[in-house]
Amino acid sequence: MKRLGTLLSCAAVLVACEPPTEAPQTDGVSAEAAGVTTQTVRDETVGVSLDVPGDWRVQPDPVLFNTYGFALFEPGGARSGGHERSPVARVALAYQVKPDQIEGLVQDLMSKYQEFSPTRSEVVVGQGLRGTVVSGLPGTDPYSLVYVADGDRVYRIGLWTMEPGLDSRARGVLASLRFERPTRSVQSLNLVPVEQAKYAAPPAEQLALNQRAHAERVLMTALEGGEPTQSVQATDVSAQQVACEFGQPAGLFWQTVWDYTNQFYSGYTTVYSGTYYNLRPGDPGWSAMSGNYGSWWGQNYHIRKCNTGLLNQYYANDWPAHKNANVYPATTGTVEWAGWDYADSEGYYTLGNYVVVRNGSYRAIMAHLTSIASGITWGTSVGMNTIIGYAGKTGGPWDEHVHSRIAYGESLTYNGQPYGGSTVWPNKLRCVSCRATDPGDAAGNGDGQFDVKDSTGARFYTRFYHGRWMRG
User: Where is each M23ase beta-sheet core domain found (predicted)?
Assistant: First the structure.
């Protein structure tokens, strides 16, 4: 086999909650006999190396959790497309844990997640080390957590699979691991602690723009129908529960989640050519339906809808959004989650920094935030014009975007993360600064400005499809 050279270098100093500019070292190696390109991933802080396929992506932890590690993502396959990456594993050094504490941690996991009926087993890790596996944990995909000790060091390895338990891909990752004493300390990385990073403010210039955009949005809302009134009845959805999904009931407020601070397309706007939309400079605030190929319609990454122990996201959507653009709640209500959580299960890793808002039996998620807005904590009431955070790309190796979805009847884990329930697809989205995105056609469809304007003056999008340009 021949060495193709170093692709990336070791993890380095982090500023605010930006992802590290340098990742664990990866050496490309061509397995000529098998015709498969592989890479050796080595992290001197974690103290591990392993061989993985050459197209897998490596994402080092962007902030300091109670462990330090990196995540692996695989392109292609049934679960990818939305973010162009599928989570495979997170390999972390549990630098606060001693080997004799593993049994207590495993028992604690089994107790805290007992409603999921987790299973415990043993597995060989690396060159003969014995690891303890807890499978059946909640997350965005079925999730297992492995504890293994090498001398006086403890490692925590999380693995995502299509079905509960360890599949061949997960076992391959475990078998490939090689442990060595770290040559660099976690403290030397100067990572920002997660609690501090959670509420980091955008740069002053961006924050001033955000505040101006917010003030204009509040004024436009007052002129165009005002704040919404929720009037959802349980009977609106009860007949459709068996299907694990249903359309937006009458009275359920649902809105676009960004404003004109979104300059994802570098300040470009859309112009209709008679056949398709082109871009021209000068007018920020646009995003595209199902950006990054994630979709409300269940294609690609967002596929789950009937799993009782997982986060169902069949009608989730990814809205491309400029870094640190204002993010608003998809629905009004009360904050039930705000931040990251890596206390004992990283099954929700790909959401990154996220906020959950509950209204009655409905919960909205807005994820991948760079940071959360000051004052957005559990129990906070949020309205249509409340800034809940700032757009980012936390949770994986993708471009900035806001992951947004609403579900009905979810349950909560012991520490407040949602799971189960039924997915909901939108019939209409309230917009505030929306402009001419639909020039109409010969049949008279489209009014040249927005899809619906009700008697109060409020404006809504009512038709959705992949790639449609929409203004917040």
Answer: 317-408
Q: In Å, how far are 144, 193, 402 from 419, measured between CA atoms?
A: 16, 27, 19
Q: Are residues 183 and 203 in the same domain?
A: no
Residue indicated by tokens 């990866």: 26
Q: 143 and 200 share a domain?
A: no
Please tell me whether residues 131 and 217 are part of one structural domain: no
Percent of the chain with pLDDT over 90: 56
Q: What pLDDT sits at residue 246?
A: 84
Q: What is the CATH number of the domain that holds 320?
A: 2.70.70.10
Q: Do 218 and 314 have their domain in common?
A: yes
Confirm whether pTM is higher than 0.85: yes
**Which domain does 6 fall in, by range?**
2-191
Average pLDDT estimate for 16-30? 47
Q: Domain end: 138, 160, 191, which one? A: 191
105-119, 204-218, 376-390, 457-471: which has the minimum mean pLDDT?
457-471
* 208 and 261 housed in the same domain: yes
Exposure class string for 171-182: b at 16+ Cβ within 10 A, else e: ebbbebbebeeb
Q: What is the pLDDT of residue 33?
A: 42
Please compute the mean of the pLDDT values over residues 211-222 and round it to a whole number.
93
